[in-house]
Amino acid sequence: MITVNHYIALSAVLFVIGVVGVLTRRNIIIVMMSIEIMLNAANLLLVTFARQSGDMTGHVFVFMVMAVAAAEAARGACDHPRVVQEPRDGGY
Amino acid sequence: MTPIKIPSIALDAIGPEMVLTATAMVLLMIEVFADKKGRDHLGYIALGGSVLAGALAYKLSGVSVTTFGGLYVVDNFSTFFKIIFMISAGLTALISVKYAQDEGINHGEYYAMILFATVGMCVMASARDLITIFMGVEVMSIALYVLAGMTRTREVSNEASLKYFILGAFSSGFLLYGMALVYGATGTTQLQAIGKAAGLLTGNPMFIAGAVMMTIGFAFKVAAVPFHMWTPDVYQGSPAPVTAFMSTGPKAAAFAAFLRVFAEAFPAMKEDWWVIIWSLAVLTMTMGNVVALVQNDVKRMLAYSSIAHAGYILVGLAVASPAGSSGAAFYLLVYAFMNIGAFALLIVAAGKGERTTTYQDFSGMGRRSPLTALALTIMVFSLAGIPPTAGFAGKFYLFMSALEKGFVWLAVIAVINSVVSVFYYLKLVVYMYMRDEDGEARPEISVAAPLAVAAVVTVCAVMWLGVMPAKYIDFAKSAFLPF
Amino acid sequence: MWGLEHIWWVPILPLIGATINGLVGHLLSKRAVGVVAVGSTGLSFLVALAAFGNILGLAPDQRVYESVLFTWIQAGSFTAEAALQVDPLSAVFLMVVTGVGFLIHVYSVGYMGHEAGYPRYFAYLNLFMFSMLLLILGANFLLMFIGWEGVGLCSYLLIGYYYEKQSASDAGKKAFVMNRIGDFGFLLAIMWIFWTFGSIDYTTVFPVAHDKLALGGLAVTGITLLLFLGATGKSAQIPLYTWLPDAMEGPTPVSALIHAATMVTAGVYMVARCNALFNLAPMTMMIVALIGATTAIFAATMGLYQFDIKRVLAYSTVSQLGYMFLACGVGAYVAAVFHVMTHAFFKACLFLGSGSVIHGMSGEQDMRQMGGLGKKMPMTHATFLISTLAIAGIPPLAGFFSKDEILLSAFLGHTPGHLLYWVLATIAAAVTAFYMFRLYFMTFTGELRAEDHHVRDHVHESPNVMTMPLVILAGLAVVGGFLGLPMIEGGHALKNFLDPVFAQPGHAAGGHDVSVGLELLLMGVSVGMGVLGILTARYYYSVKPEAAVELLNKGGMIKSIYTLMQNKYYVDEIYDALIVKPIVAVSDKGLWRFFDVKVVDGLVNFAATFFMGLGSMFRTAHTGLTRSYAYAMVFGGVFLAGFWLFLSSGK
């Protein structure tokens, strides 16, 4: 039986993976992906709670976050070529 | 099927935001169609938009409405902060005109980004729901990430932008996760509803974890120690007008959201909260001041000084009283004027490409350009909190609110800190008036008209707010939050 | 009433002068700059004079006039008004500051005539006048504090006026640091006062002090000690006195105005103003008296073997300020104010006289190069002699009356240890007479010792614009003391004038019950000490100069004492080693490097190896930085969460 706690645990694990990724990885793209994982961990949490309480707000929030994540990714993407062209092979 | 209920929408309450957005769009259009000469007016259009938006915001003073189904609120608190944002945006546009032309960033999107960021700030000040707060934070931040890297040819600027982006997004992750946890614990994203539910939740680990993570997110945005590490690098690397902007408007917005969340959503946690904020405030101001003491670069010194000022403002949060919140608001208003003024004069002194920003570069400025030196002197005096400038009135009011609530030690530490800060501010004055030029070639100091206007406006504002602050403090007092 | 109602013009006029000279002074002719500066101060003096006349015309118990311009800061229960207050105490200071200030402005026109940066000099000087007047006229602690900061700033700017000289800018820095320590105490005291009384207005705080504060309680002792810390910084008392002798790097008129006649007496003014508080704190009073007496003798001995003419005067100023604090400490505020006034006259005259000498000697300040100037500079000589006699306490000159009153009060005081203070102060009087006459004999009598023949040929009397102020000040040094002549009905004119300010609730402000015999005896002792000092100086420096050399050549203890005094007891060196170096080391090498480099990087490195086993995580400083910032955030967050959990679990 999968309970809410399982989702919360999964989300926490995802979040930690994201944090550790930001802290340890050198490649800028992987770092951005890690941040994305952090955001998605939060999304998972939001959806879980929304389902649990039958409240739509959490779902709406998730859509907003997705939009934001897309904008951030766009912002990150325009940095990327400038940085990788430098001799530090994308390190940051 | 149940009909969809459309919540009431009061469009007149979001006049300032709409004006800003429209102006930003117009700027983007102009960028497409105008020639190089036509672009010289971009800055003034942005200025006009901010002034109009500021006037609309001012007209809303005294109005108190909650709209968009409770997502958005217009009250004196938000109105006061919006006026700060407009001042910050307008002055930034003004000091950018010459700079943008010199540095080759005179594009519509530069000014549009400033205005978009300002829209985000307005949303942060008015948000009464976690969703709107997050949206506001992100609208503001993404625009700022872009602004920090505007001067694409300068490597430091790129670096600053990237660092800011990575760390900012990282902190957003914490903020969002914290919001999700709070939502989970309380079942709502409405601040006041959270506040009601939170009364029953003291000691709930999920709720506390959420609050802590949200605090991390906000502490990052206001650059509180130890979440301040990005500030010096980003402030130093960004184009000077952008730094002036980032250190005033967005910082005020972060404080506005911070204050509102903790006043409306977490009042039950006040007893624990003040200890946390107390420590953050003490750490932040001490760290900022001590490190600023040993800087050689004026721009970097101003970055650390901005950290220290965030520490002072945190005093108003730690106090968690109406007087504390309005004290913080008033200080942010004062800080907007004095810091942008200081940066305007830094731009004057630094010359093209921001090559000359060390203390050494200011030597002999008292003779090379007496009026610039005098204006800069007034600005740093105000930053140092020397009467009768606005900085003094602001600090005084803020620290007094701490004393009234019995936070004697906090006030004492804050006073010690502002005494320490005088050293590095005055160092600049010493260089300007008591050092001769060392013979190195420095750019001729010429003050472009918009910069001169900005300098005069800020000097007058700083003196006026210092000598006659009563009226503005009254206004700030009406902009309190019910703690 | 014309005068009192226009009291605002007293500080505003110099401010206008400062603004004009500061903003457009470089466009004006030298003459115009001088007219603006001197004119604004002169007008201010006239208004002050009219106001003083008005005050005198009022009944003694109504001599308080308050003029509110506007409400400056209002926040909650806190109100600070931009208001000026004239009462007998501020009126006396007002006359001294505007009068002496005006004379020194006139003198500066001559003295600074050849200097570059002439408008800048006068802008600072006028700004100083504004701040000083705000300090003494402000009707609440906040305005006093603004003036307090302002005079400190102007003093700092003027000390560093010859900033090309390293020593001058160092001296400016030193004055600034020492004053900041004092200002900090003052600011804390203001906060404490507000906290206790809910107000910072004099008229609200002082009348209720007696009821609100317990005699000798923690609050009043703390407040007054902090206030006194402020006073020691501004008035150069132990332990914060070392900046004043160094401040002599500034132009001489500045030394006369700021570092002798006015600013350094601000501390005395503040203590006198807060007498209602100090009277409630016996322990503070004891400390004030002790510090005053110690400073008086300590600084006097340091003045014994200085060769720079201005430094001798500087140590003498520190010593005389010690007398004033001694008077405050034994509760004789009138005597303190009286001495402030007479000291302003004769010390300003001495400084301006020394300026005239330096001017005549083409900038030479070493007394070993001087001698025999009496014949070549008759006016300077005559006025200098009068003032030197005055400071030595020879009747009937001004210094005699005020010093005698202080000594008498110390002798009769109730403060513990008052007899010891009396002994110290009496010895200091002899020492003062000695070194002042050493200065006089070395400078004005004997033969000119300068070897440079340009200097020798160039010696001349100063122009009238410089000697006239000297004459006026010397005249005041002669007659100024007569204010203290006993009147028929007990007490003297100045005392009767000032008494309403110092009256203590529950006590009639009465004089001491002294037999005339005792008073005369004490007077005789102090005059005798003065004469003794003068005669000794005459023996060693005029009659038989080789005796001094012989004495030193004997070596032994005298020689070592001499070395100790000449090096000012090594106080500067001690401060440097104990305070300055560690602070610099901590802020430069310590905190910053430690915190930013060691702590953060250390944590990061530790975390990297511990959690990830990644060896060195930085390839270059740049690539590591962003991540190390993220680390700091995470650690901060973990710490925050732990802290919060700790707090909430405590309940």
Please explain how this structure is put together:
The complex is a heterotrimer of chains A (92), B (483) and C (651). Chain A has a single domain (4-81), classed as Helix Hairpins, CATH 1.10.287. In chain A, 82% of the residues lie in helices and 0% in strands. Chain A contains 3 helices and no strands. Chain A has helices at 4-24, 28-53, 57-84. The longest helix of chain A has 28 residues, at 57-84. Chain A is flat. Mean pLDDT of chain A is 83; it is low at 84-92. Chain B has 19 helices and 2 strands. A two-stranded antiparallel sheet of chain B has the order 1-2. With 483 residues, chain B is mainly α. The model of chain B has no long low-confidence stretch (mean pLDDT 88). In chain B, helix 5 packs antiparallel against helix 10 (240-265), helix 8 runs antiparallel to helix 10 (240-265) and helix 12 packs antiparallel against helix 13 (322-350). Chain B has one domain (11-478). The longest helix of chain C has 42 residues, at 571-612. Chain C has 651 residues and is mostly helical. Chain C is globular and about 85 Å long. Chain C has 27 helices and 2 strands. In chain C, a hairpin with a 2-residue loop joins strand 1 (65-75) and strand 2. A two-stranded antiparallel ribbon of chain C has the order 1-2. The chains are: A mainly alpha (92), B mainly alpha (483), C mainly alpha (651). Chains B and C meet through helix 6, helix 8, helix 11, helix 15 and helix 16 of B and strand 1, helix 5, helix 6, helix 26 and helix 27 of C.
The SS-based structural class of chain A is mainly alpha
Tell me the greatest interface.
Answer: B-C, 72 and 62 residues
What about the largest sheet of chain A? none
Say what the CATH topology of chain A is.
Helix Hairpins
- Based on CA atoms alone, the radius of gyration of chain A comes out at 16 Å
Beta content of chain C comes to under 5%
Shape of chain A: flat
Order of helices and strands of chain C: HHEEHHHHHHHHHHHHHHHHHHHHHHHHH
The CATH architecture of chain A would be: Orthogonal Bundle
Average pLDDT metric of chain A: 83
Query: How many beta strands in the DSSP annotation of chain C?
Result: 2
Instruction: List the total number of helices of chain C.
Output: 27
